[in-house]
Specification:
The chain is built from three helices and eight strands, in the order αββββαββββα. It is α+β, with helices and mostly antiparallel strands and 147 residues long.
Length: 147
């Protein structure tokens, strides 16, 4: 009976947390020409701040910026991302975990002159994501490169 009471406690808590993750963070978008820095928790990676422990390399390309930008959008959707906002130089997509439907926000900023796409991937809830955001971006990097 004790085992069931513990289960009964966790299920509503997880459902509550899943529901709380539905509101988009207020720091999304480009501010002062860059994506937001990661908050210092191990559930975020970003390429705009190379001195940060959360740093991950930006995506790079050699084709034209419009071709690379279109390819990125295709790869994000193929990877299961839902594009929420798209402009000529900014993209915001959300990814949901399978089991509890937690949301991760993934942003991209096209830097045409440097032939780079800056990236930020962050979980809305929790402290650690067990490397999910980093793995997502590295998988996307391989898809983007055509591997």
């Amino acid at each position: 009976m004790k085992k069931n009471s513990r289960l009964t406690w966790w299920i509503p808590t997880l459902l509550y947390l899943a529901g709380c993750s539905s509101q988009a963070p207020s720091n999304l978008g480009v501010h002062d020409g860059r994506l937001a820095p990661c908050p210092g928790t191990p559930n975020c990676v970003g390429s705009e701040y190379p001195d940060s422990p959360d740093w991950i390399a930006p995506l790079t390309f050699t084709d034209s910026p419009p071709q690379a930008w279109a390819r990125l959008q295709d790869r994000v959707q193929a990877q299961g991302g839902q594009i929420e906002t798209r402009t000529d130089a900014y993209l915001w997509a959300t990814y949901r975990s399978r089991l509890f439907r937690f949301i991760d926000d993934v942003e991209f900023r096209l830097d045409s002159d440097a032939q780079r796409i800056q990236v930020r991937s962050a979980s809305r809830l929790g402290y650690s994501d067990l490397g999910v955001n980093r793995k997502r971006i590295e998988t996307l990097r391989s898809l983007f490169a055509g591997e």
